[in-house]
TrEMBL record:
Residues 12-138 form the Gfo/Idh/MocA-like oxidoreductase N-terminal domain. Residues 147-297 form the GFO/IDH/MocA-like oxidoreductase domain. This is Predicted dehydrogenase. InterPro entries: Gfo/Idh/MocA-like_OxRdtase_N (IPR000683), Gfo/Idh/MocA_oxidrdct_glycsds (IPR050463), GFO_IDH_MocA-like_dom (IPR055170), NAD(P)-bd_dom_sf (IPR036291). The keyword Oxidoreductase applies. The keyword Phosphoprotein does not apply. Signal peptide: none annotated. Transmembrane segments: none annotated. One of its GO terms (molecular function) is nucleotide binding. It comes from Geodermatophilus africanus.
């Protein structure tokens, strides 16, 4: 990190895996001077790694990285790299995350950090031991409407929170002839829809409301076989006609009953969490509904810039009011000048990059950390265990995780 003659502080960036998410991370870093000029930061794209040589060339020729490599270890060893983005497939997160920590590199890693809570905890332990700042790709929590909902819970506007409903219904695997990619195999992905989608739900509800204390769950596989796709030759979006069939090893759908831990707002709430990767209709249907004794609020990512809010139990104006995203919500004003000008998914990654870099440079809390990732992973692993045993399963507390529900923004310990 360098500063010259009062010019912006330069942050050297290393990227591991140059796919769609790697491109988003890159654009987020590049946006820092224009979106957050007050930080005084400029990101230098130092080196990118990918196992595919054509992607390495793309990283240099199109994205603007100075160097490229097919070995991620060269990224971690580069002295010009101050921060690392890890956007590789799930099965590599543990290995690369631990290596980044041991190299002393602050890292921004996509979710899930591990294929299960155990792997996530190993990465978390390495990061804590190394003392490096971390950020996790749970970007939905940064939507201005979600930040506002969290504030309404914390300041008591909704009263005592009684129940929550949150879902992530997605149709990316709704086509039965969709390819048997790594996402459907336990060796590479771990759990299925629960690890991929329920992890977002777990992070979102705990960020807004507070920690989940115990769960009971069920899961099912809707399409038990899919056409085989050679590793690295395509994605789960590929449709294969008359191909050799292979077995789907992890769940397409999961449903969870949850009890939340008590916090300063009173007795613990209860809720339902649901996920599916095979529904027909919703495309990115991540939603959260929070109900309290004085009101309720709902949000759906497919209408990201709207928050529905009801405060008060009766009167001529009972029911929901739709509040458009506006400069009074979260980081909205950094992107749009007034209500009705929509933000998008990519903007949430810019907010995520800002919070990560603030934690690296200034030690400012606010980023979704490895502790938060472990907390979400514990919920998912408890749900997976419950789905196989049919019993209630306690969710281990994670010291250092940040929860919603209290004025200070951190839930009371369990």
């Amino acid at each position: 990190m360098t500063v010259e003659n009062g010019s912006p502080r330069e942050i050297g960036v290393g990227l591991i895996s140059v796919g769609w998410m790697g491109k988003l991370h890159t654009r987020a870093y590049q946006a820092m001077p224009s979106v957050y000029p007050e930080l005084g930061l400029k990101c230098r794209l130092v080196i990118a790694a990918d196992t595919a040589p054509d992607r390495v060339e793309y990283a240099k020729d199109v994205l603007g990285y100075e160097r490229g490599t097919t070995d991620y270890r060269e990224v971690l060893a580069d002295p010009d790299v101050d921060v690392v983005s890890i956007c590789a497939p799930n099965m590599l997160h543990r290995e690369i995350g631990i290596a980044a920590a041991k190299a002393g590199k602050p890292f921004w890693i996509e979710k899930p950090v591990g294929r299960d809570a155990h792997e996530t905890a190993e990465v978390a332990a390495a990061a804590r031991e190394a003392g490096v700042a971390t950020s996790i790709g749970y970007n939905y929590r940064h939507a201005p409407a979600v930040e506002h909902m969290r504030k309404l819970v914390a300041d008591g506007t909704l009263g005592r929170i009684t129940n929550i409903r949150s879902v992530f219904l997605n149709g990316y695997a709704s086509e039965p002839k969709g390819a048997l990619s790594w996402r459907f195999q336990k060796e590479y992905s771990g759990s299925g829809a629960m690890g991929d989608l329920l992890s977002h739900v777990a992070d979102l509800v705990q960020y807004v409301v507070g920690p989940i204390d115990e769960v009971t769950a069920l899961s099912t596989i809707i399409h038990p076989e899919r056409p085989i796709l050679p590793m690295g030759s395509g994605t789960h979006f590929a449709v294969i006609e008359d191909g050799e069939m292979g077995t789907v090893e992890n769940e397409d759908y999961g449903a969870v009953l949850a009890r939340f831990a008590p916090n300063s707002r009173g007795a613990g709430a209860v809720g339902t969490l649901e996920c599916s990767r095979v529904v027909v209709g919703p495309q990115c249907g991540l939603a959260i509904e929070v109900y309290g004794t004085e009101g309720s609020a709902t949000w759906n990512f497919e209408r990201m810039n709207e928050l529905k809010l009801a405060v008060g139990r009766g009167g001529a104006h009972a029911g929901y009011t739709t509040i458009l995203g506006n400069p009074g919500m979260g980081d909205y004003a950094k992107f749009q000048p007034g209500p009705g000008n929509s933000m998008g998914y990519d903007d949430l990654k810019v907010i995520e990059a800002k919070k990560f870099l603030q934690s690296v440079i200034q030690g400012v809390p606010g980023a979704c950390t490895i502790d938060d990732a472990q907390s979400a992973a514990e919920v998912v692993s408890a749900a997976v265990t419950s789905a196989s045993t049919g019993s209630w399963v306690k969710v281990p507390a994670v010291p250092g995780a940040t929860y919603g529900g209290d004025p200070a923004g951190a839930g009371v310990g369990r």
